[in-house]
Amino acid sequence: MKYKAIVFDLDGTILNTLDDLRDSVNYALAEYGLPGQSHEQMIPNVGNGVRYLVEKSVPGGESYPQFEQLFSVFKKHYAENCCNKTCPFDGIIPVMKKFKAAGVKMAVITNKFQSAADDVCEKYFPGLLDVVLGEVPGMPRKPAPDIVFKALSKMGIALEDAAMFGDSDTDEKTAQNAKISHCAVLWGFRTREQLLAAGAENFISKPEEMIDFIEGKVLYNRAK
User: What's the CATH number where 118 sits?
Assistant: First the structure.
């Protein structure tokens, strides 16, 4: 393997969380008599943390008079229902098991709050991940590079020996800020055009191709 460790984004990269996020957002909105969000409305706002997601779902955002109470309702509902419909993307777990068998270390970095990140990773990826880092006080959210550096430090891996996979413009910018090798996945919550606009250079279209990238092969690039 060219790389000794992998840093994964969570939502939209290894885990399809959209339905549970939407259900919890709409539950909170309904509690305050506000209209719900469709999948199409939700998708552009996933990946920047749940506060951002709820802010973009509420009329007026944080200026809505009861925003903090509504956000608390969302967090409680999501904490209790984050695994109802969520599931790994097809093909992800077999690939992760191959990495594990090859001695490649794996971390998740996400803007999802830490307790929810821990819950879903423990349920869906037991024994596969070396580090799970979510949103905690004092840690800047992606696209700040701090969370990448912390994950690598915890795994004892140098920056040049690691690669990152993500599905969003936020992930691309995080990788750029951290100066870590990055490959965008095309099965998540952003289009190829959006990723190109964010500066993505490398792309894969199915989980099995993660292995090729970690072995040093580039299957798709900006020029193709």
Answer: 3.40.50.1000
